[in-house]
Structures are given as C-alpha cells and as structure tokens.
C-alpha cells in the first residue's frame, strides 16, 4: 500500500518585518542577517493568531466535505501550546468540521513534533485503509526584542492530509531516527521565551544529521546520488546547507549541482517567513515543490527533521504521478501578496501585547488580521475563535 502526503498547505500571518530595517534599528550590519544566516523577512503574528488559529488556517483549504468525513486522526505538532492539558487539535478538529469519531491529539518534541505526527499517521493509515489523517505543525518562534535570537523568529503553520494513494509524496518505509538528551535549546514551563545555546545547537544539528545519514545510508544502501533533492528543518535558511556541506563531496559532480540548486528552491519561503519550528521542514518541502519546475514523478526527496533536546530523523519519499495537480502554489502566492510590512515601532508594540492570565474577559481587534480563522476573545480562561464563512 502506498501511503504519504496527499495534500499540503501552509499559512503565515499577514504581518512581517524587513530584516534590513531591523538590522538598522539594532545597529547591526544588515549582511549579518541577509547573508550570514540568509534571512530577508520575518513573519509576525498579531495577538489574534496563535498556534491553534494558524494551524486551522493552514488546514482549512484542504478540508472538503468528503475529507471531513474520512479523517479519523488529527495530530498537532507544536512547541507553542496554549494549554498544558487540552490539545489544540481538539479545537482545530471542531473549527474544521471534521466528523466526531476521530482522535485529536497534540505532540511535543521541539521542532520534530510534526514529523512524529506524520509517522504516527502513516502507521494508522496502514491499518485503516480508506481513512485519512490530518497532521499539522504550528508554532510561534519567539526569543525577545533586541536579543541574539531575535532575527530567527517567525510564525506559521503547515497542514498535511495523509492517505493511501497520495497525490503528492509517497513515503518510503525505511527511516532512521535518533534521540539524545542534550540542552541545545529548551523552554522551561515558567518561561515565555526559549533558552538557546546557539553554537552548541548548530553543532548538535550537524552531528545528528551526519550520524543519522550514515546509519540511513548503511541500512538502505542509498547514496546522495539516489536523491533529487533533500529538504531540511530550517531554523534559518543557511542551517541545512551547513549540514549538507559536510557530506556533499561524497556525491558526483552532477548530484552536487542538483542538490545545491534544489536546496536553494527549498529555502525561498523560509527566507521571507523565518523559523516556524515544527512546520519548517514541510515549509521547505512546499517551497521546493512550488519553485522547482523540473521535478518529475518518481523523483526521490530526502527529508531531515530535527528537534532540539534532541530527536532527529531522516526519511524519504517519491513524488506521485501528476503531483503538480495537487499543489497549492497559487494560494501560497496570494498569501504573500496580502502581507503588510510593519515599522519597527509597530512590530515592538505587537510583540509586547499580552493575553490576560487571570480569567478576565478580553475581546480583540483584528485590524491587522485578515485570516479566515482568528482568536476573537478570552473569557473565564477560555479561548474563543471566529471563523469567517
């Protein structure tokens, strides 16, 4: 049975900051941002967009009436949860009108969460032919104003329908995962922002990639020459390239050229959105599929997922027949066309807005928010979302 990604879509809030202007405001050479880490813009979420609303907005265009009746499993991967107990997937399930007899759960392991959900969904479909799963990675990367990590912030979500006979990517069975208890990046429950050992985090990412790739290659007998492209988890657009550089010389000249060209296609969206944690690997996949016109059915795509703390996994898939007919390229183009640039003062004002923590009632203005689904109010510690018809 062929199982994989039948549909895929992403969402990012309509607000962004130009990183050249941010660099000027912070007294930093803009090349440090645009060249050093390879970022141009950074998506900013208004207070009306959180993990739940972004995930629902990413999934909404994928959910037809028929899909809503065949989805049995809703998994939200996130490290930006809004509740310690209740799964955001339960709310997304309701917002999307999915049939009631479904499991809805939330998965956490830093940026690896959506991949864990994807693997769970694949196993579910294998034992439930004809049924489908919805997997979402939704996050807000937040480090604080005028901090070292500020430029690697971002916000967004990616949603995927997982099914048999998928329209886009047929997942291959062999994958290699690895876990190690380290402190390269983490966020204690008492902190609104993450704690990062930047140098160690980069080193850990590369170390995981090298070890996992070596084991994957040993188990499968596949080499880089067998891949058309590799999509990476991208906390910033240069990170995956750093890892790829450590093994690329093992490939033929033609393969090196192909992988590096396709890597550039895979980072286009990340450069203008920033880090979206659990969704970033799949945002890179969307970018590759939308911008590389030379891809054909049967091309093998490698995917490297990494979540600090740490868990990594390398897996692969082959492009399905007529996969281009299932892409949402026009929708993605329209999403970027509707974005609004913030001044640095507006960005800082939005960043400092906060939600009530005492159960008091607060309603929100969506002056910056044109999304179909958004946070409308908080009342008695409960979040209420509005969905435009």
UniProtKB/TrEMBL annotation:
The keyword Transcription does not apply. One of its GO terms (biological process) is acetyl-CoA metabolic process. Keywords: Acyltransferase, Transferase. Residues 253-385 form the Hydroxymethylglutaryl-coenzyme A synthase C-terminal domain. It holds the Pfam family HMG_CoA_synt_N. Its EC number is 2.3.3.10. The active site is at residues 79, 111, 233. Residues 2-164 form the Hydroxymethylglutaryl-coenzyme A synthase N-terminal domain. InterPro entries: HMG_CoA_synt_C_dom, HMG_CoA_synth_N, HMG_CoA_synthase_prok, Thiolase-like. (3S)-3-hydroxy-3-methylglutaryl-CoA binds at residues 29, 143, 242, 275. Transmembrane segments: none annotated. SUPFAM superfamilies: Thiolase-like. GO terms for molecular function: hydroxymethylglutaryl-CoA synthase activity. NCBIfam families: HMG-CoA-S_prok. Belongs to the thiolase-like superfamily. HMG-CoA synthase family. This is Hydroxymethylglutaryl-CoA synthase. The lineage of its organism: Bacteria, Bacillati, Bacillota, Bacilli, Lactobacillales.
